[in-house]
Amino acid sequence: MRLVREPCEPPAVPSRVGIPTRQILFHHPGYDDSSNVLLKLFASDVGQTSTARGLYAQYALQACGVVAGNRWDGWLSEAKDPDLAAAVDSTSILEKSSYYFHLPLLQTDIDAGHSNLPYPIVPTFREWCFPHKDLPELWKRMASTDYELMAPEQSFATSNLTLALQARDVSCRITGCREGTQVAHICPQKEIEWWHGNGMSRYNVGLANTLDDLSNALLLRTDLHIAFDKPKFVFVPKPSSDPSKPQLVTHLIEPSAEMEYLYHNRSLHPLHSSIETLFARFAWSIFPLLDAFLTGRERRRLLLATENGPLLDKDGFASWERCAQFSRKRSQSPKKRKPEPGPVTDDGNIRLSATADASRPRKRHRPSADSDNLELQLPSTALPPFTAMHNSADPTTLARTWLERERLRSDVHNTWEEDLAWAKEAWTGNMVLDEEKARKWLEISGAEFLESEKERKPSG
């Protein structure tokens, strides 16, 4: 009797000899050719009449349009001069090594005498405004097809997003696998400030103003969830056999022989997430590709939604140093929150609660037996790190206000803003903090730490 089976065979990825992996450059015609590469996109498509690698033109136009501030009236050309720039067919496969992305002049620029200035660029996802009711044409068509939001027949609480999603999607939306799946947020949880600022909860299935909604989630197999968050691929609409009904497909952002063979341009299993959140995810995945353009030691004309004042001159230009800072603060891969069973877990983890009495000193956290001996001491007024404190004359409050201003002034990489956003989220009680994270939260809150001088005794 033989019970042993042969080892699993890897995917039979066909050899692509003679078809090298390549990138296509998209230039901004308003700058010198030595420093005008706006985006560099992976050529992951293959034309019907050619075996050469290329890129679907509509995908490139959408990517360039997003970073240009939702301009869907642009066109691609091999010529830099707009008067000589014959538009490339937007339904074709781009096979050249580089193109220019052109935009018609806006009337506001003409009226302001800015006809000779380069069109502005949005530097980061957090500065980008979502184009409500103004999606690109293919995405608009998607919104009118069968991809409509569907809630499971059984109702679930917001905290049970996993159960609701398993009831709705059942399996991974790319592979159809029922096992080893996870909840994948479409607009990353880290972008909660952007979510609220752009009013994205209008697309939610539920009534809560939250990212944890069926409209903003789908089931993915664990390995694909990791790749989705890197991000290695996005979901975009592409033409199907019926020109009036495009289909959502998986589109690779970076090279991967196995993923290209298995998933690139594959249509998805029925997907009932919001088309709007999927478009936001597409934009979120594109903005990090602006890194080279922002760090090119050139003044750039920027379009900002949340920052203004001395950052830009009267024509909308920012110094190359400021552009480089925008690059360093671009959106990172999302961090997932772990579910929390209660205020305090058996292993000593703490859960912060927004309903706690802020005026009462916190109890010292007793470290577990296998942790370093730490003594955590909070100020007498344990305020959350984001409390408005500018109108108070209390000495402790004034000290905290000064500390906050000093951090913002000296923090050139804007890490303090991200730490503060994380501390706000922790204060709401939506996460469990272990020893290390609790210490981080207390440091952000202005707590003092006294390291114990006693050495740990070896166990046994």
What features would you describe in this structure?
- By secondary structure, the chain is of the alpha+beta class.
- The protein has three domains: 23-130 and 287-328, no CATH class; 137-278, no CATH class; 350-451, no CATH class.
- The protein is 25% helix and 14% strand.
- It has 13 helices and 17 strands.
- The chain has helices at 57-67, 107-111, 137-143, 161-169, 192-197, 222-229, 257-263, 275-286, 291-294, 320-328, 395-410, 415-427, 435-444, and strands spanning 23-27, 37-42, 45-46, 53-56, 75-77, 93-94, 98-102, 181-185, 217-221, 233-238, 247-252, 300-301, 317-318, 350-351, 374-377, 432-433, 448-451.
- It has a four-stranded mixed β-sheet, covered by helices on one side. Strands 3-4-6 form a three-stranded antiparallel β-sheet.
- It starts with 22 loop residues before the first strand and ends in a 9-residue tail after the last strand.
- Residues 328-377 are annotated as: Disordered.
- This is HNH nuclease domain-containing protein.
Report the average pLDDT across residues: 79
Radius of gyration: 25 Å
Q: How many strand segments?
A: 17
Number of domains: 3
Helical segment count:
13
Task: Please state the overall shape, judged from the principal axes of the Cα atoms.
Answer: globular
* Strand arrangement in the largest pleated sheet: 2-1-7-5
Q: Which structural class do you get from the secondary structure elements?
A: alpha+beta
SSE string, helices as H and strands as E: EEEEHEEEHHHEHEHEEHHHEEHEEHHEHE
Low-confidence sequence ranges:
336-383, 386-392, 452-460
Can you give the helix content as a percent range?
A: 25-40%
Biased composition (Basic residues): 328-338
Pfam families: HNH_2
Organism: Amniculicola lignicola CBS 123094
Protein name: HNH nuclease domain-containing protein
